[in-house]
Design a protein that fits this description.
The protein is of the alpha+beta class. 24% of the residues lie in helices and 29% in strands. The protein has six helices and nine strands; from the N terminus they run βββααβββαααβββα. It has helices spanning 71-79, 98-123, 183-186, 192-207, 212-217, 262-265; strands spanning 17-19, 35-47, 56-68, 133-145, 148-158, 165-174, 232-234, 238-243, 256-261. It is flat and about 60 Å long.
């Protein structure tokens, strides 16, 4: 599949809008009084030629950002965490606000589209639809556990081909430090084997099978080792691991979520 790339146009028409798009989403618990969330929306469309019926690239970002205590740390951590792809910001140590990052990302994405698709289209105008691109990111923040915010990005991308791709990316943020936490931050050393077993057990319940072999027959973890997803949501009473379509099973299986209760994880979770 041709990679979904990113960025702009030689002769083009651009519509760019910057406005509020809803801020933080509702959550099971209210966030700390010292931190609030707002959002910025940018929407741009560019064309490879003067003909607006020709190939185009449409990008729409709705990015939630923090305001208040630890806001700078939270926003900097989020924007470097890979919620936008390509991850332009991971290669620089300079702090950047999310509104600044949104503007920079859109401009670069559209410029890359121009550079990557312009010459290709000139040589292959009979397949105009193959050069259409779309990239849509909608984000919100929820707080299901007292000590963590969860930043959630719903992403749709299309770069030619039979269909687009939809994924969810999550990042859990420590309320006190503003730092994104990893599995190693919340689990005791050597957690992997037992956690993998819990994932298999819960998948077996979901798919009404007895063991990993029968899961494999449903294409789940077929030909690959079991692993916990880095894409997870920390809840008050459980942790949910999210696997994207095509990640651990065939595309038809769609997104797979495995919820494991804290009671099952009791011996693996670090004590507070």
């Amino acid at each position: 599949m041709r990679r979904l790339i990113i960025s702009a146009c030689i002769v083009f028409s651009v519509l760019s809008i910057v406005c509020s798009c809803g801020g933080a989403s509702g959550s099971g618990k209210s966030a700390s009084d010292s931190i609030k969330f707002d959002s910025i929306k940018m929407d741009s469309t560019v064309y490879l030629t003067e003909d607006t019926a020709g190939p185009r690239c449409h990008i729409s970002l709705c990015l939630t950002y923090a305001k208040g205590k630890n806001a700078e740390n939270i926003n900097d951590s989020v924007i470097r965490s890979g919620i936008l792809c390509p991850d332009y910001f991971s290669i620089t140590s300079q702090k950047i606000s999310i509104p600044e990052a949104a503007d920079s990302f859109v401009n670069r994405y559209l410029n890359d589209y121009k550079n990557d698709y312009g010459d290709l289209y000139k040589a292959d105008k009979t397949h105009a639809n193959s050069y259409n691109c779309e990239y849509i990111v909608k984000t919100y923040v929820k707080q299901d556990a007292e000590d963590y915010y969860t930043y959630i990005a719903n992403i749709y991308s299309y770069g030619g081909g039979a269909h687009g791709n939809s994924i969810v990316i999550t990042k859990n943020i420590d309320v006190q430090s503003g730092r994104i936490v990893s599995l190693k931050d919340i689990f005791v050393p050597g957690y992997e084997s037992e956690l993998n077993e819990l994932i298999v057990n819960n998948l077996c319940k979901m798919y009404k099978v007895k063991n990993l072999k029968e899961l494999n027959e449903k294409t789940i973890f077929m030909g690959i080792d079991v692993y916990p997803s880095d894409n997870f949501i920390i809840g008050d009473k459980d942790i949910t691991f999210i696997y994207a379509p095509d990640e651990i099973a065939y595309h038809a299986a769609g997104e797979i979520r495995v919820k494991i209760s804290n009671s099952e994880l009791e011996e693996l979770l670090k004590k507070k």
